[in-house]
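To: structure desk
From: M.T.
Subject: fold request, one chain
Message: Could you run this one when you get a chance? Sequence is below, nothing fancy, just the single chain.
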Amino acid sequence: MIGNIYDKLPKAVSLGINGARRVRQTAVALGRTGLERALGDRSAPPDVLRKLFERLGATYIKLGQFVASSPSLFPEDYVAAFQQCLDRTEPVPFHRMLKILKQDLGAGCLGEIFADIDPVPLASASIAQVYAATLTTGEKVVIKIQRPGVADILVTDLNFLYYSAVALETVLPRFKHASLSGMLSEIRNTVLEECDFIQEAENIAVFAKYLEDTGNTTVMVPRVYPEASTRRVLTMERLFGIPLTDRKQLLATTSRPGDVLGPAFETWMSSVMGCALFHADLHAGNLLIMADGRVGFIDFGIVGRISEKTRNGVKKLVPAMITLDFVSLAEAMTAIGMTREKVDTARLAHDLKVLYDAGESDDLADLENGYAPAMVVDPDRFMLEMVRVAETHGIRFPREFTLLLKQFLYFDGYRDLLFDMGDWMDDMMPMDMPAGMPRFFLPNDRHTL
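Reply: Done. Structure tokens follow.
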């Protein structure tokens, strides 16, 4: 059995220059973290580990994001800490990024394809940097360029971690119950897919086709320029919109932001039910309010694909959440989750009601009937609490569902950001869900801008 592991190692683990470089980088990051600890840093262990992951770069940032989106698998304090895992890095100098661009699109791409490129990146993350540019045909675009060597680093790190987990589970069989190799295999596949910009372009195409097929004119995605895109370079239409992070500018353009965000939520919700994929990273920076009132969905590097079982469970879950039917909610959660024993849905329903009631603040205690109590202010915290309640009843959710739930809670968080979301929930539900339900994700109508 051990021999089988050794047979696999040469195929997966780079022991050459990349491996040596990563050993050195890891040693430097560990040394810096240890020094800070010795000099008096008394941060909690989860925060120390998060900072270390950020210093170790792309692979470990992605691992941290996996921890943050998997509350069924990791301790609550670590999940909460890794919610703050920042995917922002010091930008690589432009001349090095331009070298990758020329390698993939040709030495004359600057002049033949692009009339100009702003050398200051719009964004710099662990996997790629984004630049504003203009095509020779006049269109304003953004170019997403993969950081040099990042794919090799990811392969080296993830393969090493994966085969280390395989070896550990072989030598110590009790670790098989933790399914470390299974988790790392999932992370590896997900992260390497995120590095494939051709796949991201296909994700955009699938979602754009879904919008076209459903006649949706309220949401848009950027146009992709295939002739200026490769596995490491993605050229897209630049959307000049207002991100939800800019609350002041958004409220200066409309007095009823809910009239814009409502259709966006409806589109996202219906895509969960009817599209081959759904956007799984709808933080405020990835939603742009356009001048014509449409909402732009950007950055399809992280998408979700749910099983038929989860999809059917969600169809029951959403109306149950909106109507505060805790028994139906408990039944839907049981259907979605994985459990080895029979769940007492009556007890689970009671515990869910306690959780919802606990989110009710004193000044909102007199909300009219038909409105849900205010949820925990932090959407991530509410997700953790919901999962915690389910776990006490022996339910473990698949990661696809926690990704889904987090997007729900992103939208609910925008309620707190923008206060009055108007009456958009009446029309937001997919056709197979009843309309006119009480507003779950919204504050009371008394709240005005």
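Reply (cont.): The first helix runs from residue 2 to 12. Let me know if you need anything else for the meeting.
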